[in-house]
UniProtKB/TrEMBL annotation:
Gene3D superfamilies, A to Z: Vaccinia Virus protein VP39
Keyword annotations: Methyltransferase, Transferase
Pfam families: Methyltransf_23 (PF13489)
Keyword Repeat: no
The keyword Nucleotide-binding appears for this protein: no
Organism for this UniProt entry: Trebonia kvetii
Gene Ontology terms for molecular function: methyltransferase activity
Name of protein: Methyltransferase domain-containing protein
GO biological process terms, semicolon-separated: methylation
Length: 190
């Protein structure tokens, strides 16, 4: 990913395309179905949940990513979290893993949308960036051959910034944990 100010931001593509690691396993254990995996990418979490018999649905704006999820036998929709989605108000868990709290560049808006999707008593499980970061950027994906994807707004939030965004969205923090150098926050609207 490259930002408008010229910085290159590393992407964890190897992790996204691999099997769930130890930190993912902790996240999966905390995911009660039905689960909506927002920004599911190639679907390692959606696929793992489906294989374990947990009802799950992946959502992503990348058609190629959604095709990979479906080829692996898990359900997925090609659309934005801000588009109409099935199960409004019925998801027990909404996942924002792999820094997807950054989707849309306005974290409090994203969290309010995710809260609309939750069932009563449901939780949003958020992966924060390492360190103390709170940044909004304009970015694009840049291929090794120099081709650029469309420009999009994004946000990078460390744990403190996630807590601030949750408060701005009127969400209550119910848990925080670290695993394998990764940071997570669980929030609820009730």
């Amino acid at each position: 990913m490259r930002t408008a100010d010229g910085r290159g931001l590393p992407l964890q593509i190897h992790r996204w395309c691999g099997q769930p690691d130890a930190a993912d396993e902790e996240l999966l254990q905390r995911s009660h179905g039905p689960v909506l995996d927002v920004g599911c990418g190639p679907g390692r979490l959606t696929i793992a949940l489906t294989e374990r018999g947990v009802p799950a649905l992946g959502v992503d704006i990348s058609r190629a990513a959604i095709d990979l999820v479906r080829q692996a036998g898990a359900p997925a929709l090609h659309r934005s979290v801000f588009d109409p989605l099935p199960g409004l108000g019925r998801w027990a868990t909404v996942l924002l893993a792999d820094g997807n709290i950054g989707i849309g560049g306005l974290p409090a808006r994203l969290l309010r949308r995710c809260a609309q999707l939750l069932a009563p008593g449901g939780r949003i499980l958020i992966e924060a960036e390492p360190g103390d970061v709170d940044e909004r950027v304009t970015a694009w994906l840049e291929h090794p051959d120099g081709r650029r994807g469309p420009v999009f707004p994004w946000a990078h939030l460390g744990t403190a910034a996630v807590l601030h965004a949750a408060a701005a969205a009127d969400l209550r923090v119910v848990d925080q944990w670290h695993d394998a150098g990764r940071a997570f926050v669980a929030v609820a609207s009730d």
